[in-house]
Write a structure and sequence with these properties.
Elements: E1 2-7, H1 12-22, H2 29-37, E2 41-48, E3 55-64, E4 67-75, H3 84-98, E5 103-109, H4 113-121, E6 125-135, E7 141-150
Parallel strand pairs: 4-5
Antiparallel strand pairs: 1-2, 2-3, 3-4, 5-7, 6-7
Protein name: N-acetyltransferase domain-containing protein
Keywords: Acyltransferase, Transferase
GO molecular function, one term: acyltransferase activity, transferring groups other than amino-acyl groups
Length: 151
């Protein structure tokens, strides 16, 4: 079992460590501090219930007008396939709805089939594309799909 809890700017270093384990292009703690200082920005972390609690995944999102934008979401490699991504996304949907957002928007790498499957199951649909948006570790570029759903 796990708990998904809000996280503040003090979690920036931990978010950066998790991000580095989840993505080729890692963001540092300063990037997370900057993101979490933005108006309407929020973070949530999934934690084990065991003592000591260990992080399992995270989501950073922001409210911008009528939209809730998922800035980054990741589940640590050893924890994937346990529906944590779904729980994190549901947390955003509930919190964004409480904040008055009317639409959820996110970007996903075209080749990230597990994430695309999750987002489709959560009723997000492709609404756009950014060509060559993501840079992979080996230097290749990958398109970002922009996905959205009404809340």
């Amino acid at each position: 079992m796990s708990a998904v809890l809000p996280a503040g700017i003090e979690a920036a270093a931990g978010l950066a460590l998790m991000h580095a384990r989840c993505f080729d292009e890692a963001w540092d703690a300063k990037t997370f501090q900057t993101l979490l200082r933005m108006p309407g920005a929020f973070a949530h972390v999934a934690w084990t219930h065991a003592e000591p609690a260990e992080p399992l995944g995270f989501v950073v999102w922001r409210r911008a007008g009528d939209d809730a934008e998922v800035i980054s979401i990741g589940v640590l490699p050893g924890q994937r396939g346990r529906r944590l991504g779904r729980r994190l996304l549901r947390t955003v949907i509930l919190a964004a709805t409480r904040e008055g957002a009317r639409r959820l928007v996110l970007e996903v790498a075209e080749g990230n089939a597990p994430a695309r499957t999750l987002y489709a199951q959560m009723r997000l649909t492709e609404v756009g594309r950014r060509r060559g948006y993501y840079r992979k570790a080996h230097g290749a570029a990958e398109d970002a799909l922009i996905m959205a759903r009404d809340l």
